[in-house]
Design a protein that fits this description.
Helix 1 packs across helix 8 and helix 9 runs parallel beside helix 10. By secondary structure, this protein is α+β, with helices and mostly antiparallel strands. It is globular. It has a six-stranded mixed beta sheet, with helices on both faces. Strands 11-12-14-15 form a four-stranded mixed beta sheet. Strands 2-6 form a two-stranded antiparallel sheet.
Length: 351
Protein backbone atom coordinates (compact mmCIF):
# COMPACT_ATOMS: atom_id res chain seq x y z
CA UNK A 1 0.00 0.00 0.00
CA UNK A 2 1.46 3.35 -0.99
CA UNK A 3 1.81 6.09 1.59
CA UNK A 4 -0.76 8.82 1.22
CA UNK A 5 -0.74 11.80 3.53
CA UNK A 6 -3.25 13.89 1.62
CA UNK A 7 -6.56 14.59 3.28
CA UNK A 8 -9.87 13.24 2.10
CA UNK A 9 -10.74 16.73 0.88
CA UNK A 10 -7.48 17.17 -1.04
CA UNK A 11 -7.99 14.18 -3.35
CA UNK A 12 -10.89 15.63 -5.29
CA UNK A 13 -13.68 14.88 -2.80
CA UNK A 14 -15.79 17.84 -1.76
CA UNK A 15 -16.15 18.68 1.93
CA UNK A 16 -19.46 18.06 3.70
CA UNK A 17 -21.29 21.37 3.86
CA UNK A 18 -24.88 20.32 4.57
CA UNK A 19 -26.38 18.22 7.32
CA UNK A 20 -28.07 14.93 6.49
CA UNK A 21 -30.66 12.95 8.42
CA UNK A 22 -30.99 9.20 7.93
CA UNK A 23 -33.78 6.70 8.49
CA UNK A 24 -32.67 3.13 7.95
CA UNK A 25 -35.00 0.22 8.64
CA UNK A 26 -34.39 -3.49 8.51
CA UNK A 27 -36.29 -6.47 9.81
CA UNK A 28 -35.23 -9.55 11.72
CA UNK A 29 -37.12 -12.78 11.21
CA UNK A 30 -36.59 -15.78 13.50
CA UNK A 31 -33.29 -14.41 14.81
CA UNK A 32 -31.68 -12.43 17.64
CA UNK A 33 -31.24 -8.79 16.48
CA UNK A 34 -29.01 -7.74 19.38
CA UNK A 35 -28.20 -10.05 22.25
CA UNK A 36 -27.26 -8.74 25.68
CA UNK A 37 -23.95 -10.40 26.66
CA UNK A 38 -24.63 -9.61 30.33
CA UNK A 39 -27.81 -11.67 30.31
CA UNK A 40 -28.15 -15.42 30.50
CA UNK A 41 -27.62 -17.02 27.09
CA UNK A 42 -27.28 -13.69 25.25
CA UNK A 43 -31.01 -12.93 25.37
CA UNK A 44 -32.40 -10.40 22.87
CA UNK A 45 -32.59 -6.85 24.20
CA UNK A 46 -36.25 -5.98 24.84
CA UNK A 47 -37.73 -2.83 26.37
CA UNK A 48 -39.44 -4.04 29.53
CA UNK A 49 -42.17 -1.39 29.33
CA UNK A 50 -43.14 -1.43 25.66
CA UNK A 51 -42.08 -4.93 24.64
CA UNK A 52 -40.16 -3.53 21.66
CA UNK A 53 -36.87 -5.04 20.57
CA UNK A 54 -33.87 -2.80 21.23
CA UNK A 55 -30.82 -2.63 18.96
CA UNK A 56 -27.90 -0.42 19.93
CA UNK A 57 -25.99 1.91 17.67
CA UNK A 58 -22.87 -0.11 18.50
CA UNK A 59 -24.43 -3.17 16.84
CA UNK A 60 -25.18 -1.21 13.65
CA UNK A 61 -21.72 0.38 13.57
CA UNK A 62 -20.13 -3.05 13.93
CA UNK A 63 -21.97 -4.21 10.81
CA UNK A 64 -20.72 -1.13 8.95
CA UNK A 65 -17.12 -1.49 10.13
CA UNK A 66 -17.10 -5.16 9.16
CA UNK A 67 -18.44 -4.27 5.71
CA UNK A 68 -15.76 -1.58 5.30
CA UNK A 69 -13.20 -4.18 6.33
CA UNK A 70 -14.44 -6.49 3.58
CA UNK A 71 -14.58 -3.67 1.03
CA UNK A 72 -10.98 -2.65 1.72
CA UNK A 73 -9.51 -6.13 2.22
CA UNK A 74 -8.54 -5.43 5.81
CA UNK A 75 -6.84 -2.06 5.29
CA UNK A 76 -8.17 1.44 5.99
CA UNK A 77 -10.01 0.20 9.11
CA UNK A 78 -8.79 1.19 12.57
CA UNK A 79 -11.29 -0.56 14.86
CA UNK A 80 -11.31 -4.02 13.34
CA UNK A 81 -13.26 -7.09 14.38
CA UNK A 82 -10.69 -9.52 15.85
CA UNK A 83 -12.51 -12.43 14.23
CA UNK A 84 -11.70 -10.98 10.79
CA UNK A 85 -7.96 -10.91 11.35
CA UNK A 86 -5.87 -13.46 9.45
CA UNK A 87 -3.08 -13.14 12.00
CA UNK A 88 -2.74 -14.72 15.43
CA UNK A 89 -0.89 -11.60 16.59
CA UNK A 90 -2.99 -8.99 18.38
CA UNK A 91 -1.69 -5.53 17.49
CA UNK A 92 -1.60 -2.77 20.07
CA UNK A 93 -2.87 0.69 19.18
CA UNK A 94 0.60 1.98 18.26
CA UNK A 95 0.99 -0.78 15.68
CA UNK A 96 -2.60 -0.39 14.47
CA UNK A 97 -1.89 3.26 13.72
CA UNK A 98 1.20 2.32 11.70
CA UNK A 99 -0.69 -0.43 9.90
CA UNK A 100 -3.53 1.88 8.90
CA UNK A 101 -1.28 4.72 7.74
CA UNK A 102 1.64 2.61 6.43
CA UNK A 103 3.97 5.09 8.12
CA UNK A 104 7.14 3.98 9.89
CA UNK A 105 8.93 5.69 12.77
CA UNK A 106 11.21 7.71 10.50
CA UNK A 107 8.31 9.06 8.43
CA UNK A 108 6.33 9.89 11.57
CA UNK A 109 9.38 11.68 12.97
CA UNK A 110 9.34 14.05 10.00
CA UNK A 111 5.66 14.98 10.53
CA UNK A 112 3.89 17.36 12.85
CA UNK A 113 1.07 15.97 14.99
CA UNK A 114 -1.43 17.69 12.73
CA UNK A 115 0.09 16.07 9.63
CA UNK A 116 0.04 12.66 11.32
CA UNK A 117 -3.63 13.17 12.19
CA UNK A 118 -4.43 14.03 8.57
CA UNK A 119 -2.61 10.90 7.37
CA UNK A 120 -4.52 8.80 9.91
CA UNK A 121 -7.93 10.19 8.98
CA UNK A 122 -7.24 9.92 5.27
CA UNK A 123 -6.65 6.19 5.64
CA UNK A 124 -8.95 5.22 8.54
CA UNK A 125 -12.33 5.19 6.83
CA UNK A 126 -14.25 4.04 9.90
CA UNK A 127 -12.78 6.87 12.01
CA UNK A 128 -13.92 9.45 9.48
CA UNK A 129 -17.46 8.16 10.03
CA UNK A 130 -17.65 7.19 13.67
CA UNK A 131 -14.59 8.69 15.36
CA UNK A 132 -12.26 6.91 17.77
CA UNK A 133 -10.37 7.29 21.02
CA UNK A 134 -6.62 7.11 20.37
CA UNK A 135 -4.94 5.66 23.45
CA UNK A 136 -1.30 5.21 22.50
CA UNK A 137 1.73 4.44 24.59
CA UNK A 138 3.40 7.48 26.13
CA UNK A 139 6.47 7.10 23.90
CA UNK A 140 4.38 6.86 20.75
CA UNK A 141 2.23 9.81 21.82
CA UNK A 142 5.39 11.86 22.30
CA UNK A 143 6.49 10.81 18.81
CA UNK A 144 3.18 11.99 17.34
CA UNK A 145 3.38 15.31 19.15
CA UNK A 146 0.93 17.40 21.14
CA UNK A 147 -1.01 18.46 18.05
CA UNK A 148 -2.33 14.93 17.53
CA UNK A 149 -5.82 14.76 19.13
CA UNK A 150 -6.50 12.13 21.75
CA UNK A 151 -10.02 11.65 20.45
CA UNK A 152 -11.95 12.11 17.22
CA UNK A 153 -15.70 12.68 17.58
CA UNK A 154 -17.58 10.86 14.83
CA UNK A 155 -19.81 13.06 12.66
CA UNK A 156 -22.09 10.11 11.81
CA UNK A 157 -24.17 9.02 14.79
CA UNK A 158 -27.20 6.78 15.25
CA UNK A 159 -29.69 6.51 18.09
CA UNK A 160 -30.59 3.23 19.69
CA UNK A 161 -33.37 1.63 17.66
CA UNK A 162 -36.62 0.18 18.97
CA UNK A 163 -38.80 -2.06 16.86
CA UNK A 164 -42.10 -0.63 15.67
CA UNK A 165 -43.84 -3.79 16.84
CA UNK A 166 -44.10 -5.49 20.19
CA UNK A 167 -41.93 -8.55 19.74
CA UNK A 168 -42.62 -12.15 20.63
CA UNK A 169 -39.88 -14.44 21.83
CA UNK A 170 -40.05 -17.76 20.10
CA UNK A 171 -41.45 -20.41 22.37
CA UNK A 172 -39.46 -23.19 20.77
CA UNK A 173 -36.05 -21.83 21.83
CA UNK A 174 -33.69 -24.75 21.65
CA UNK A 175 -31.22 -26.05 24.18
CA UNK A 176 -27.89 -26.41 22.40
CA UNK A 177 -25.07 -28.65 23.51
CA UNK A 178 -21.46 -28.83 22.38
CA UNK A 179 -19.13 -31.69 23.24
CA UNK A 180 -15.37 -31.21 22.80
CA UNK A 181 -12.67 -33.80 23.40
CA UNK A 182 -10.15 -32.69 26.03
CA UNK A 183 -7.70 -35.46 25.30
CA UNK A 184 -7.82 -39.22 25.58
CA UNK A 185 -11.27 -40.50 26.34
CA UNK A 186 -12.29 -37.37 28.28
CA UNK A 187 -14.99 -35.10 26.91
CA UNK A 188 -16.40 -31.80 28.09
CA UNK A 189 -19.77 -30.37 27.19
CA UNK A 190 -21.44 -26.97 27.37
CA UNK A 191 -25.11 -26.04 27.16
CA UNK A 192 -26.82 -22.84 26.03
CA UNK A 193 -30.30 -21.69 25.11
CA UNK A 194 -30.85 -20.47 21.55
CA UNK A 195 -32.93 -17.29 22.01
CA UNK A 196 -34.69 -15.77 19.00
CA UNK A 197 -37.47 -13.33 18.25
CA UNK A 198 -40.37 -14.19 16.00
CA UNK A 199 -40.19 -10.91 14.05
CA UNK A 200 -38.97 -7.35 14.56
CA UNK A 201 -39.15 -4.31 12.26
CA UNK A 202 -36.33 -2.03 13.39
CA UNK A 203 -35.87 1.60 12.24
CA UNK A 204 -32.65 3.49 13.03
CA UNK A 205 -32.36 7.26 13.10
CA UNK A 206 -29.06 8.92 12.27
CA UNK A 207 -27.49 12.31 11.60
CA UNK A 208 -24.45 13.36 9.57
CA UNK A 209 -23.11 16.45 11.32
CA UNK A 210 -21.41 18.82 8.90
CA UNK A 211 -19.52 20.53 11.75
CA UNK A 212 -17.99 17.30 13.02
CA UNK A 213 -17.23 16.25 9.44
CA UNK A 214 -14.55 18.93 9.24
CA UNK A 215 -12.76 17.46 12.26
CA UNK A 216 -12.53 13.93 10.80
CA UNK A 217 -12.14 14.98 7.14
CA UNK A 218 -15.38 13.24 6.21
CA UNK A 219 -16.04 14.00 2.56
CA UNK A 220 -19.19 14.24 0.50
CA UNK A 221 -18.09 11.05 -1.25
CA UNK A 222 -17.99 9.32 2.15
CA UNK A 223 -21.55 10.46 2.88
CA UNK A 224 -22.79 9.29 -0.50
CA UNK A 225 -21.13 5.95 0.15
CA UNK A 226 -23.46 5.52 3.13
CA UNK A 227 -26.37 5.36 0.69
CA UNK A 228 -25.43 1.76 -0.14
CA UNK A 229 -22.99 0.95 2.67
CA UNK A 230 -25.63 0.51 5.38
CA UNK A 231 -27.74 -1.63 3.09
CA UNK A 232 -24.83 -3.86 2.10
CA UNK A 233 -23.60 -4.10 5.69
CA UNK A 234 -26.83 -5.58 7.03
CA UNK A 235 -27.17 -7.82 3.98
CA UNK A 236 -23.61 -9.19 4.11
CA UNK A 237 -22.67 -9.14 7.79
CA UNK A 238 -25.60 -11.19 9.08
CA UNK A 239 -24.64 -14.43 7.35
CA UNK A 240 -24.02 -16.28 10.59
CA UNK A 241 -26.19 -18.78 12.42
CA UNK A 242 -27.35 -16.31 15.08
CA UNK A 243 -27.97 -13.43 12.64
CA UNK A 244 -29.51 -15.12 9.60
CA UNK A 245 -32.91 -13.58 8.95
CA UNK A 246 -31.95 -9.89 8.70
CA UNK A 247 -32.96 -7.92 5.61
CA UNK A 248 -32.67 -4.18 4.84
CA UNK A 249 -36.08 -2.75 3.88
CA UNK A 250 -35.89 1.06 3.72
CA UNK A 251 -33.19 3.73 3.52
CA UNK A 252 -33.81 7.47 3.45
CA UNK A 253 -31.18 10.19 3.59
CA UNK A 254 -32.50 13.73 3.69
CA UNK A 255 -29.87 16.32 2.87
CA UNK A 256 -30.72 19.85 3.97
CA UNK A 257 -29.95 23.13 2.22
CA UNK A 258 -29.09 25.08 5.34
CA UNK A 259 -26.44 24.51 7.99
CA UNK A 260 -27.27 23.46 11.54
CA UNK A 261 -30.77 22.21 10.76
CA UNK A 262 -32.46 18.84 10.67
CA UNK A 263 -36.00 17.80 11.46
CA UNK A 264 -34.81 15.34 14.06
CA UNK A 265 -37.93 13.17 14.29
CA UNK A 266 -38.16 11.51 10.89
CA UNK A 267 -38.16 8.01 12.35
CA UNK A 268 -41.11 9.00 14.57
CA UNK A 269 -43.08 9.41 11.33
CA UNK A 270 -43.04 5.65 10.72
CA UNK A 271 -45.71 3.29 12.03
CA UNK A 272 -47.07 -0.16 11.28
CA UNK A 273 -50.63 0.11 9.93
CA UNK A 274 -51.53 -3.44 8.91
CA UNK A 275 -54.60 -5.00 10.50
CA UNK A 276 -52.64 -8.03 11.64
CA UNK A 277 -51.69 -7.89 15.33
CA UNK A 278 -48.05 -7.51 16.36
CA UNK A 279 -48.00 -11.01 17.81
CA UNK A 280 -48.96 -12.49 14.45
CA UNK A 281 -46.28 -10.82 12.32
CA UNK A 282 -43.99 -13.39 10.73
CA UNK A 283 -42.23 -11.63 7.82
CA UNK A 284 -42.23 -8.49 5.70
CA UNK A 285 -45.24 -9.62 3.64
CA UNK A 286 -47.35 -9.22 6.80
CA UNK A 287 -46.22 -5.60 7.27
CA UNK A 288 -47.70 -2.33 6.04
CA UNK A 289 -45.46 0.64 6.84
CA UNK A 290 -47.29 3.94 7.31
CA UNK A 291 -45.28 7.02 6.32
CA UNK A 292 -47.84 9.84 6.34
CA UNK A 293 -46.34 11.65 9.35
CA UNK A 294 -42.89 11.44 7.80
CA UNK A 295 -44.24 12.90 4.56
CA UNK A 296 -45.90 15.72 6.49
CA UNK A 297 -42.57 16.59 8.14
CA UNK A 298 -40.80 16.63 4.78
CA UNK A 299 -43.48 18.75 3.13
CA UNK A 300 -43.48 21.23 6.02
CA UNK A 301 -39.73 21.77 5.62
CA UNK A 302 -39.43 21.23 1.87
CA UNK A 303 -37.79 24.62 1.32
CA UNK A 304 -34.90 23.52 3.52
CA UNK A 305 -34.42 20.18 1.77
CA UNK A 306 -31.84 19.79 -0.99
CA UNK A 307 -32.37 16.11 -1.80
CA UNK A 308 -33.99 12.93 -0.53
CA UNK A 309 -32.19 9.69 -1.39
CA UNK A 310 -34.28 6.53 -1.10
CA UNK A 311 -33.84 2.77 -1.39
CA UNK A 312 -36.85 0.53 -0.80
CA UNK A 313 -36.99 -3.24 -0.79
CA UNK A 314 -39.25 -4.69 -3.46
CA UNK A 315 -41.25 -6.65 -0.86
CA UNK A 316 -42.00 -3.61 1.31
CA UNK A 317 -45.62 -2.39 1.33
CA UNK A 318 -46.09 1.28 2.19
CA UNK A 319 -49.23 3.20 3.12
CA UNK A 320 -49.10 6.84 2.03
CA UNK A 321 -51.87 9.36 1.38
CA UNK A 322 -54.56 6.80 2.07
CA UNK A 323 -53.28 4.22 -0.42
CA UNK A 324 -50.92 1.28 -0.23
CA UNK A 325 -48.27 0.18 -2.69
CA UNK A 326 -44.66 -0.82 -3.16
CA UNK A 327 -41.47 1.17 -3.73
CA UNK A 328 -42.94 3.10 -6.70
CA UNK A 329 -45.80 4.30 -4.49
CA UNK A 330 -43.32 5.47 -1.85
CA UNK A 331 -41.20 7.37 -4.38
CA UNK A 332 -44.27 9.07 -5.83
CA UNK A 333 -45.36 10.12 -2.34
CA UNK A 334 -41.90 11.54 -1.59
CA UNK A 335 -41.95 13.46 -4.88
CA UNK A 336 -45.33 14.89 -3.93
CA UNK A 337 -43.95 16.04 -0.58
CA UNK A 338 -40.67 17.68 -1.66
CA UNK A 339 -40.78 17.84 -5.48
CA UNK A 340 -39.75 15.29 -8.09
CA UNK A 341 -36.45 17.06 -8.78
CA UNK A 342 -35.36 16.53 -5.17
CA UNK A 343 -35.94 12.77 -4.96
CA UNK A 344 -33.11 10.43 -5.93
CA UNK A 345 -34.07 6.77 -6.08
CA UNK A 346 -31.31 4.16 -5.84
CA UNK A 347 -32.03 0.61 -6.91
CA UNK A 348 -31.62 -2.12 -4.33
CA UNK A 349 -27.91 -3.06 -4.72
CA UNK A 350 -28.92 -6.74 -4.75
CA UNK A 351 -31.64 -6.74 -7.39
Amino acid sequence: MSIDTTTANDDGNDPVENRSEIVFAYDAEDTNPNGNPLSANDKPRIDETTGAAVVTDVRLKRYVRDQLDDDHDGVNIYIRNPTKSDSDVVLDRDDLFKQVTSLDDDELGDMTGSEAADAFLTNATDVRYFGATCSFSSDFQDELGEEFPGQFIGPVQFSHARSLNTVVQKGESKQLSTVVSSGGDAEQGTFATDNRLQYAFVPFHGVVNEVGAKDTLLSRTDVEQLDTLLWRAVKNQTLTRSKMGHQPRLYLRVEYETDAFHIGTLDDGLELTQELADTELRNVTDVVLGVDDLLDDLETHRDRIAEVTVIADRYLTVEANGETGGPDHLVAALEGAVGADRVKEIDDPYT
